[in-house]
C-alpha cells in the first residue's frame, strides 16, 4: 500500500471511529483564496528565495517523502527520544544534500539549501548541523592552518561531530572574560587545559551533552606565565570508539530548555587535560619550537575580534532562521484568519477574522517585515564571499567592519521583529493557537533563542552604533564616507530641522524615493541627537565607558535600528524591481509590501518626524495609509503565504494546513490520543476529595 | 530530621559528589542590596497588597511548609502526573484557606487570598479552582434561583467539581453564535441537549477533560420551535460514583497545550442528552408549567450580555494574575541582573548587568507597570461588591456599564504589559534564562493564555471604546458625564490644539497633576480623532458595522488604552499618597515609580503630543527623564522585589532565588538529573553515521 493510500485509510478509520458529529468540508479558505488572481507563483518563489530556490524545493521534497519528518509525532517525545530523532533525521538527509567541505568553500548556497529547508521543519535540526559544520568548521577554516583542514573535512563528512566551546557559566557575551586556561608546557609541547573555577565551566555548548566528539575550545593561552589572551584549540573530547570523555575532561548535559530540546547542550569541565601542540589553531598566533609566543596581531582584543568575526556565518543564519519562523507563523495565522469566522453582518453571514481591521493589522505588517528581512539576508549572502576574501587578506579591513555593523543590526532587529511576530501569530489564533497541535507556542519558543545567542541583541546594537559613529567622526575630519549604505549622511542638524517631507496625500506619499528619504532622515536624526547626548553625558560622567553606556537607549541603539531599516528597505525595493520587470501584477503586490514596511516603520517613529519634518495632517496620512496598505494586502496575503510557506508536513499545525480543514484535523488529532476518553488513574484521590466534607 | 536539615544534608552531598570546581559564595546580590536603605518593608507589603496582605502571608506559609509545593519537581512530570499533582495540591490547601460559599458572598477577599497565593506558585493551580468556584459558582449564583444555591454550595465544598461550557470549536469570542441546542420537551418537562455539528462541540472547557462532574452549559434554548437565544443550564456530566459520562454525553480531553497543562481542558459532545427542567438557571428566563417561555429581559442580546456580566470576576482575576506573572518574572530577572556581572571598567572589576542602561531600561518600566496594574486591580475589587449589588437590582445600570468598560480595557492593557514584560525578563537572563530551571519560559508561556481567554483583548478594547463613545454622545446631547474617570472630557478639538504643556525642565515635569493632565489629554485627543475617523469612514462605507470595524486601529483601540492608562495612573498616585503619609522615603520610591509609569506612557505616544502640546525640547525632556527615572530606580528595584516577590519555593528558578547563589544552584540542579553524565542509548546510531563514509 502506498503512503497516500495508507493515510487515506487511516483518515477513513478515524472518521468511522470518531465520536464527533461529522465535519462538513470547509470551503472558507478556498473561497478566501479566490479573491486574488494575477500572482505569478513561480516567479515570486524564485525571486524571493533567489539562489536557494531550486535547492530548497529539492530538499523539501526529500524530507516530505520521508516518514521521519512528521512534526505531530514529535509532540509526545521524551527529551532523549527527541535527541535520537534529530540524529536519525540528519542521517536520513545530510548525505543527500550534496554538501561537502569543498563545495561549501566555493559558495555558501549549498549549505543554505540544507539549512533553510531544515529550519522550515525545525530549528533544532538546523542548529544541530550548524554547530558542527558552521561554528566548529568555520573556526577551523578561518584560524587553523594546513594541518587542521582535515578536521574540517571530517566534520563535513560527519566523521567527527564538532562543537564550539565558547560560553562559560559565568561569561556569555563577554568572550574576552572567559576563564578556561590552556597552559603551554614546553617540556612536552602540550597544552594543559583547566577549568579553574565553577564559573569557568564551558556551558550550554550545543551538541556537547551527548553527541560531540570534537570541540573548538576558547581558552586563555598562558605561555611562560604570561596571559596571551583568548585563543582557540581544536580538541578531541570523546573517544571515537567508546564515546567516553577523554582523560581530564568531564562532560555533562544541561537538561531541559524552553525549546530546542533536540539539541543536547552540554558542559565541559577540564582537569589537567593535556592536548598536543597541534590543537592550537595557529594561523594568527603560534609558539616557536623554542617555546616563544608569537602572533601576527599584537593586540589581544583585536586578535579575539578577528577570531570571532571568522564565525559570522552563524549570525547570518540567525537572521535567515528568523525569516523562516515568521514565515511559518504567518502561514498558520493567515490561513487560520481566513478560514476562521466569527461575528459578521446583520444578514447572519459570519466574517473571516482576517477581514477585521483589528485582526489583519496585527498580522500584515509582519508579512512586510518578513519580506524586508529576506531582502536583507539576500544582501548579506551576496556580499559574504567577497568580504570573507578581503578579510582573509586584511582582517581589519573596512569592508569587514561595515559588514559586521550591518549584520549586527540586522541580527538584532530581525530577531526583535520575529519575537513580536510569533507572539501576534499565536494570539491571532486564539484558544486553538494555545494548543500544542497548533505549533505556534513551539515556534515562538524556538524563536526565543535568537535574541540571545550569536551575540546578545543589546550588545550588537551597540557594536553597530559604534562602527557608524566612527565613520561619522571620519567625516568630521574631512574624509569622504566609504559605506555605500550611509552616503546620505548629514551631520548638520540645522539641515534636518529645515527638512519638510514633500507629500500631501496618499499618492504623493507612496513614492519609493520619498519613503527611503524619510528613513535616511531617521538615521541622520539619531546620529545628530546622539552627538548631543554624548556631549551632555561627557559633562555628567567622567569615565568614557559611562558616557558611552549611558547614551545607548533613545540614541545609539536607535541609530542601529534606523540604519537597519534603511538597508532592509533599500534592498526590498530591489526585489520589487526584479519582480516588476517580469510581472507587473506580482511586482505591484510586493511593492505594496515595500510601502507598508516603510510606512509602518515611520508610523512607529512618528514622534521624531513630527518634531520637524511632518505636520499633524501628514502624521494622520501616515497612520491612515498604514491602515490602507494593510487592508489592500490582506486578501492577497493568503496567496503569498501559500507560495512561500513551508509544506504542510513541516508545520505540524492542524489549524494552518493548506487545505483549510482545520476543524476536522483538530478533531482527528485530538481523538488520536490514547488518553482522550480514558479515566484518570488518580480517580480515587478525586473521589476522596469530593466525599470529604 | 527536620526539612531544613534534610535540605542541608542533600546540599552537602551534592557538593561532595559534584564534578564541578567548588563554587565560591557569591556576594554580588547581597552587595547590590546594600545600596539602598530607608525602605519600610512591612508598610510597602501591606499597602501594596492591601486587604489581601495578611491572608497572602498566611497562605504562602501554608504552602511553603508543604513538600507538595516544589516547582522543580514539576519540570519532569508527564501530562497525567501534572494533573494529578494539581488535584493533590488543591486537596492539601483548599480546606485550610477558610473559603466558604457564605464567606465569599460577603466579601471577595478570602477567595483572593487563595487565588493570589496559588497564582504565585502556578497559574494552572489557581485556574483549576477558578473554573469551579468562580466561573461555575458565579454563574449559578447570578442566574440561578433559590433551588440552585445548593449547587454553588457543593462546588465551594468541593463536593462537585464544576466547569463552564461556553466556547465551542467554532465559536470563542462570539458567544451569541454558539450552536449547542437545548430543546424543551414539554411532555417530560426536560431539555434535550444536542451538539448538532462538529463545530458546536464544547471545546477547551477547563477541568472537563478528566475531573469535572458538573458544568454550566451555554446553549440556545428552543421552545416551541422558536430559538430563544443562549441560556445557561447547570448539568451533571459525570456520574458521581463511576465518573462515567452521563448518558448522551461524550467527554474527552483536548491534550497538550503550550502551557497550563495542569488543567485538563476538555470537550463535550451531546447526543440527545436529557436533563430535567431545573437544570435551567431561571432567574431571567423560565418556562411556565404550561410550557410557555417567559423572560424578564426581552432582547436576546441584552439577556446574554447580562449573563456574561455575571461572571466578570474571572476577568478581574486575569488582571491580578498578570500582575503576579510580572512580579515573578521581575523577581527573577532583577535579582539575576544584580548578581550577573559582565564586562566592566578598565580596572578589571565587572559590572552588574543591572547597572547598564540598555539592561535596566528593559526591566524597570515593567516594575512601574506592575505597580500600575496592582493599583488598578485594587480599584476593581474595591468597587466590585457595590457594582454587583446595583447590577443585581438593575442589570442594565450605568455603574455596571462603566465597570465593564474599565475592566475590559484593564484586562487587555495589563495582559499586553504582561506579555511584553515576561519576554523582556526572559531575554534579560540570556542563555541561563532559556533553561527550564530558570522558570522564565514557563511563566511567559503561562502568561500567554491571558490575552486570549476571558474575552479576547481586541474585542475588549472595542467594547471599552464603545461605552466611552456612548458617554461622549450623551454629552453631545447636553447631558453631564456621570463617569468619575472621564470628568476631564473635552470634545472641543480646538481646545486641544491650543493646549501647551507647562513644563520646561525635569522638576516642572515631575508634577503629578501635570502628568495626569497629559494622560487626560491623550484620552481627549483620541476621542476627538476617533470622531473624525468615524465621520470619514461613514462616507467610505455604507454599512454601519464596516464604519465601526474600520475605525478601530489608531482610533477606538487607542481611546481604550489611554483611558486605562489614566485610571492606572490616578489609582497609583493614591497608593503613593497612602505610603507617603506613613513613611516619606518609601513614599518617594513609589512616587518615582508613578512618575516613570506616566512618563514612559507619554514617551511611547510622543508623536501625538508633539503634534500640538509639546515642542521638540519638551519631547527630549520626556525621553531623558524616562532614562533618569529608570536609573534612579534600578538600585532600589531589587529591594522592592525582595519585599513583594513570591517565596523562593514558588519561583522554581535557580537563577532568581533570594540568596543570590545562582551558579551554585544551577550546577546542583543540573547534576541532580539522572542523565547528566550518561551515554545515550542511541549511541550505535551515532557511531554508524560517523563510520559511514
From TrEMBL, chains A, B:
<dbReference type="InterPro" id="IPR009100">
    <property type="entry name" value="AcylCoA_DH/oxidase_NM_dom_sf"/>
</dbReference>
<keyword id="KW-0443">Lipid metabolism</keyword>
<dbReference type="InterPro" id="IPR012258">
    <property type="entry name" value="Acyl-CoA_oxidase"/>
</dbReference>
<keyword id="KW-0274">FAD</keyword>
<feature type="binding site">
    <location>
        <position position="206"/>
    </location>
    <ligand>
        <name>FAD</name>
    </ligand>
</feature>
<keyword id="KW-0560">Oxidoreductase</keyword>
<comment type="similarity">
    <text>Belongs to the acyl-CoA oxidase family.</text>
</comment>
<dbReference type="Pfam" id="PF22924">
    <property type="entry name" value="ACOX_C_alpha1"/>
</dbReference>
<dbReference type="GO" id="GO:0033540">
    <property type="term" value="P:fatty acid beta-oxidation using acyl-CoA oxidase"/>
</dbReference>
<protein>
    <recommendedName>
        <fullName>Acyl-coenzyme A oxidase</fullName>
    </recommendedName>
</protein>
<feature type="binding site">
    <location>
        <position position="167"/>
    </location>
    <ligand>
        <name>FAD</name>
    </ligand>
</feature>
<feature type="domain" description="Acyl-CoA oxidase C-terminal">
    <location>
        <begin position="512"/>
        <end position="686"/>
    </location>
</feature>
<dbReference type="InterPro" id="IPR055060">
    <property type="entry name" value="ACOX_C_alpha1"/>
</dbReference>
<keyword id="KW-0285">Flavoprotein</keyword>
<feature type="domain" description="Acyl-CoA oxidase C-alpha1">
    <location>
        <begin position="311"/>
        <end position="468"/>
    </location>
</feature>
<dbReference type="GO" id="GO:0005504">
    <property type="term" value="F:fatty acid binding"/>
</dbReference>
<dbReference type="InterPro" id="IPR036250">
    <property type="entry name" value="AcylCo_DH-like_C"/>
</dbReference>
<dbReference type="Pfam" id="PF01756">
    <property type="entry name" value="ACOX"/>
</dbReference>
<keyword id="KW-0276">Fatty acid metabolism</keyword>
<dbReference type="GO" id="GO:0071949">
    <property type="term" value="F:FAD binding"/>
</dbReference>
<dbReference type="InterPro" id="IPR002655">
    <property type="entry name" value="Acyl-CoA_oxidase_C"/>
</dbReference>
<dbReference type="GO" id="GO:0005777">
    <property type="term" value="C:peroxisome"/>
</dbReference>
<dbReference type="GO" id="GO:0003997">
    <property type="term" value="F:acyl-CoA oxidase activity"/>
</dbReference>
<feature type="active site" description="Proton acceptor">
    <location>
        <position position="454"/>
    </location>
</feature>
<dbReference type="GO" id="GO:0055088">
    <property type="term" value="P:lipid homeostasis"/>
</dbReference>
<dbReference type="InterPro" id="IPR046373">
    <property type="entry name" value="Acyl-CoA_Oxase/DH_mid-dom_sf"/>
</dbReference>
<keyword id="KW-0576">Peroxisome</keyword>
